Amino acid sequence: MVPLRLTGGAFAVWAQLPVDHRASLAAVKSALFAAFALDSFAAYDAFVTRRLQPGESADVYLADLRRLAELFGGVPDRTLSCAFVNGLPDAARQVIRAGSRAEALDLPSVVARARAVLSDDRVATVAAATAAPPRGGGGSRGGTQDAEAVMAARVPRRPRSRRCWACGRLGHVAAGCPQGNGTGSARQEYDEELETWLRNGWLQPYNEAEDGPPRGLDGARMLGLHVRRVAGELRWSRDSAVPDPPDRVTRRSVFAWCGKLVAHLPVCGWLRPAAAWVKRRANAVTRGWDDVTTDALLQSQISHVHSRLLAADPARGQWCWTGDQAIVWIDASSIAAGVVIETPCGGVMEDA
């Protein structure tokens, strides 16, 4: 049955095989591969010069890159991802490379993003073609292309599901609401509701001069903070024990651990840039969010932050601040960017 599937030069190669090899699929495949496949040098040259062809899908383009790479010994997925992006059209390549943390994307994520970008480009091209005036004298080929473009442009787009909080309708947001930007009407409704609560006695205005200082805050717990009275003033601290480092170290588990340490706290001091320092190392030694790493430096960083945190947790501060002035400090380094808001007397109100 094998020769019935072969034509032209392939049949000639089969015919030159020894008789006992002609019935062997492996022997025929090896002979055809030797006769027609690219050698490793030509395959590498084709690999580095391969570009996405007009009308070619991202998946077909990637499959051909894989085939060429296998011919000269194969390449890691990271190298394949770089070659894939490099062969895309300029506009698509710039969009993907400009995306958030594009260098950290794995190969399937890069291909998925390329599909979306190329799909948008095709829709925009079709829309531009249908908006342009007819060219030429209306030959059959031009008419067929115009008809195909019109049919493609008529394919319905997925409806937008964003809801405007000002009017409650779908398809736009409050900033572009046809009934106004929504700010005035929302504020008016809020003021009217507040007046109703005050008029019915459901909400009482608070006057510290008459009612005294707030009560019930000593020992209160809210938003992950524990408020206590220390030396006559209310101060807050972390309301939970310091979480243990992850047993299974991946980028996802490291980021989750760092989030538990700093995400909900207004003041973290040295801990905030330290968390950024740990996350930067986790990014450097992993390719995907769930790749397990045993990197010794990352383990050392995590251990150092955890032990120092157990000894002296910087997440603490004064509960209530007074005054109408503040000083904003900003700084940046290769590890992180930082902002600190403090009072004129040096009390830290918030850092980020």
Automatic annotation (TrEMBL):
A Pfam match: DUF7047
MF term (GO), any: zinc ion binding
Domain CCHC-type as annotated: residue spans: 162-179
KW Cell cycle (keyword) present: no
Keywords of the record: Metal-binding, Zinc, Zinc-finger
UniProt xrefs under SUPFAM superfamilies: Retrovirus zinc finger-like domains
Name of the protein in its database record: CCHC-type domain-containing protein
Protein's organism: Amphibalanus amphitrite (Striped barnacle)
Origin organism lineage: Eukaryota, Metazoa, Ecdysozoa, Arthropoda, Crustacea
